[in-house]
Amino acid sequence: MFLVVGQGNPGPQYERTRHNAGFQVLDRLGLEFRKKRVASGHEALLAEAQGGLFVKPLTYYNTTGQVVGPLARFYKIPPERILVVHDEMDLPLGRLRLKAGGGLAGNRGLLSIAQALGSTGFHRLRLGIGKPPSPEEGARYVLSPFLPEELPVWERVLEAAREAVFCWVEEGFAPCANRFNALDLR
Questions:
Q1: Within 13 Å of residue 23, how many CA atoms lie on the same side as its CB?
Q2: Per residue in 93-106, pLDDT tens?
Q3: Residues comprising the binding site for tRNA?
Q4: Contact between residue 176 and residue 168 where contact means Cβ atoms under 8 Å apart
Q5: Confidence band of 81 (pLDDT split at 50, 70, 90)
């Protein structure tokens, strides 16, 4: 069994924002999500497919671990069988990277997951959104929509990310990292 987690924030005001990259990718998978309450008492949108779970936590981005931890424990899913799809300011728009474990780069959602799992050994699909105009504008930047001129690139990223998720599920980390990490969709 595996777990694919899309990071994002619930509610229509966040749907098209940079911070909802994970939700946007899971929306492209063509799965039927249903609202469920997990062991922690928090809600999530879950879909079961291909022998695993796909989840959009409804706890808000920075507290994703409150859903991921209980699901991983209940289904006995080890960190290396978890893929977290999220936005990444350290990558330019048009790039995506698969990463296994390692640092969290100040991402509070990833920190929440690492604390809930007791491990940073989970896999990530990092979707480049570019940097804000200044470091002080980071929160406003991630909660803003893509600019009209960025949308064609973002659409290509979402399609590649959809393919990368299915690749990870079917083939595993290494073949997918080899195939997708070198892509430049700008």
A1: 21
A2: 999 999 999 999 88
A3: 14, 60, 62
A4: yes
A5: very high
Among the listed residues 19, 42, 86, 123, the single catalytic one is: 19
d(CA 2, CA 95): 25
Its pTM stands at 0.96
Give the model's confidence band at 40: pLDDT under 50 very low, under 70 low, under 90 confident, else very high: confident
C-alpha distances in Å from residue 86, one per residue of 41, 61, 74, 83: 23, 9, 23, 10
19 is catalytic: yes
Question: Which residue, among 170, 157, 82, has the nearest Cα to 124 in the 3D structure?
Answer: 82
Degrees (nearest 5) of the Cα angle 55, 161, 101? 70
Supply angle C-alpha 139, 63, 6, rounded to 5.
Answer: 85
- Radius of gyration of the chain from its Cα atoms, rounded to whole angstroms: 15
The residue extents of the domains of the chain are: 3-180
Spell out where the chain has E strands: 3-6, 34-37, 43-49, 52-57, 82-88, 96-100, 123-128
- The CATH code of the domain at 3-180 is 3.40.50.1470
Share of the chain above pLDDT 90, in %: 94
Of 3-17, 64-78, 128-142, 167-181, give the lowest mean pLDDT range: 128-142
Tokens of 71: 């699901």
